[in-house]
Amino acid sequence: MTKPEILPLGTNVYIELDAVQEHEGAIILPESHSEVTRIGTVREIGPDVTTVNRGDKVIIEYIHGAILHLPRCRKWIDTTKDTHRIVGEQQILTKIKNYSEE
User: Fold this and answer.
1) Which of 15, 45, 53, 58 is positioned for an S-S bond with 49, CB 3.0–4.6 A?
2) pLDDT-based confidence at 2, cuts 50/70/90?
3) Which residue range forms the structural domain that includes residue 9?
4) Element (H or E) spanning 85, and its range?
């Protein structure tokens, strides 16, 4: 089996959400805080997308998007953690420039 390609249609965008970071010695936020918005990386874009490009860091609301569950693709895409989403371009809240996780 060859590696599958996820190719969004229209104005849809394929985003891989970043893992929620926990830092020692930092201010502790309620668990629900990370469920409001999430940062992710744009992996693929539909042909009609005009505001983001592959590789852009973006913020989306956590509840938005279709969660990808692709059992036959687990060799290439870990879809067991609900971090792979297809969202409409209009559901992207903002792009982040010069983003560093440190």
Assistant:
1) 45
2) confident
3) 1-17+37-97
4) strand 84-88
Q: Is residue 83 part of a domain?
A: yes
Sign (positive or negative) of CA dihedral 73, 78, 79, 84: negative
pTM score, whole prediction: 0.76
Looking up tokens 């744009």, which residue turns up?
Answer: 42
- Identity at 78, one-letter amino acid code: D
Q: In the predicted model, is pLDDT for residue 11 greater than 70? A: yes
Tell me if 76 is assigned to some domain: yes
CA distance 86 to 95: 16
Total structural domains in the chain? 1
pLDDT in tens, 39-54: 999 999 999 999 999 9
Q: Do 60 and 38 touch, CB atoms closer than 8 A?
A: yes
93 assigned to some structural domain: yes
Q: Are strands 57-61 and 66-67 parallel, antiparallel or unpaired?
A: unpaired
Residue 26 lies in a domain: no
